[in-house]
Amino acid sequence: MKNLFDLTGKVAIVIGGSRGLGRGMATGLLNAGAKVVIASRSAEAVEQAAKEMTEASGSVCRGIALDVTSLDAIKAFIAKVDAEFGRIDILINSAGINVRKPALEFEEADWDKVTDTQLKYVFFMDQQVGKYMVEHGIRGRIINVGSISSMVGLKNIVAYVTSKGGILQMTKALANEWAQYGITVNAIGPGYCFTEMTRPLLSKPGVKDKYEERIPMGRLGEPEDMATTAVYLASDASCYVTGQMIYVDGGWTIN
Ligand SMILES: NC(=O)c1ccc[n+]([C@@H]2O[C@H](COP(=O)([O-])OP(=O)(O)OC[C@H]3O[C@@H](n4cnc5c(N)ncnc54)[C@H](OP(=O)(O)O)[C@@H]3O)[C@@H](O)[C@H]2O)c1
Questions:
Q1: Where does ligand 1 bind, in terms of residues with CB under 6 Å?
Q2: N-terminal to C-terminal alpha carbon distance within the chain
Q3: What is the domain extent for residue 177?
Q4: Rounded to an integer, what distance in angstroms lies between the CA atom of residue 59 and that of residue 215?
Q5: What ligand 1 atom has the least distance to the C-alpha of 220?
Q6: What's the CATH number where 55 sits?
Q7: Distance from the CA of 179 to the center of ligand 1, in angstroms?
Q8: How large is the average pLDDT for residues 226-254?
Q9: CA distance linking residue 12 with residue 38, whole number of Å
Q10: Do the domain assignments include residue 81?
Q11: Is residue 198 domain-resident?
Q12: Taking a C-beta distance cutoff of 8 angstroms, is the pair 87, 138 a contact?
């Protein structure tokens, strides 16, 4: 029987792939046979991560520096990937940034920083890769990263929650428009995982224990938990699934 999860011959882009959940998902795609281009702002970090991931997987991982908050930079990046790899089959948008403070203290710059990275330029990344796929007749896979806060109104991160709520609806709208081209657009909604982003919160005394009590499965998420769902959504196994957000949260959102 054909392995429906096999990604051999596919080329994937993972924005925010230098660390955290993006790196976990990129590793999943590499282990399933894809060639993967990871991108993040720090050239040093992304190149070092790509080197380590190539060595560990035996597949091809390339690191390219990109600040996703510029449409011109996105276009140049896609041209570069096309020149080097000749196709783009899979996109995962995992760049992330957060500002944690009460809504009453939020400043305009805080709002813009978070929503630019996690909403506005997720759209433009999806749009430019979607355009590339349509022009090249590629029945591609686009995977956005939401959060449990796509569903629930977590406190003190209003711009983050707003952007993740927007990701849920953007994913549905793009899925609806692009189904005619055979492109699926889905999202993964991670629960709390220990990464650079959540370190300041989860390192506070008692917070990790409190969250683990709140999670039915009794533990935080790991990058590997996101990787398996990413491979599913990137592969033929999910060919009739589009416009969905799969919450990978140990049950947080059902409790
Ligand atoms: N950790 C969690 O508990 C959790 C839960 C739910 C959802 N999420 C979501 O999962 C995604 C990944 O988060 P994470 O926890 O893995 O965070 P992380 O460890 O801080 O990783 C964030 C990644 O995004 C990159 N990045 C940030 N701004 C960028 C920009 N402007 N252009 C390109 N790359 C950029 C970072 O690299 P540079 O700094 O070098 O640019 C890094 O590779 C985010 O969308 C986040 O909202 C996380």
A1: 15-16, 18-22, 39-42, 45, 66-69, 94-97, 117-118, 145, 147, 190, 192-193, 195-198
A2: 38
A3: 11-191+224-244
A4: 35
A5: 3
A6: 3.40.50.720
A7: 28
A8: 98
A9: 8
A10: yes
A11: no
A12: yes
Beta bridge pairs of residue 188: 145, 246
- Residue type present at position 3: N
Q: In 3D, which of 197, 199, 186 has the Cα closest to residue 247?
A: 186
Strand ranges in 9-124 using DSSP code E only, listed in sequence order: 11-15, 35-40, 61-65, 90-93
Residue 196 included in any domain: no
2 pLDDT band, cuts 50/70/90, is: confident
User: Residue 58's CB: how many other CB atoms inside 10 A?
Assistant: 9
Q: Whose CA is nearest to atom 47 of ligand 1?
A: 96
Q: Give me the number of domains the chain comprises.
A: 1
Residue type, position 123, single letter = F
Structural domain includes residue 4? no
Over residues 92-118, the pLDDT tens digits come to 999 999 999 999 999 999 999 999 999
- Helices 121-135 and 158-178 meet at what angle, rounded to 10? 20
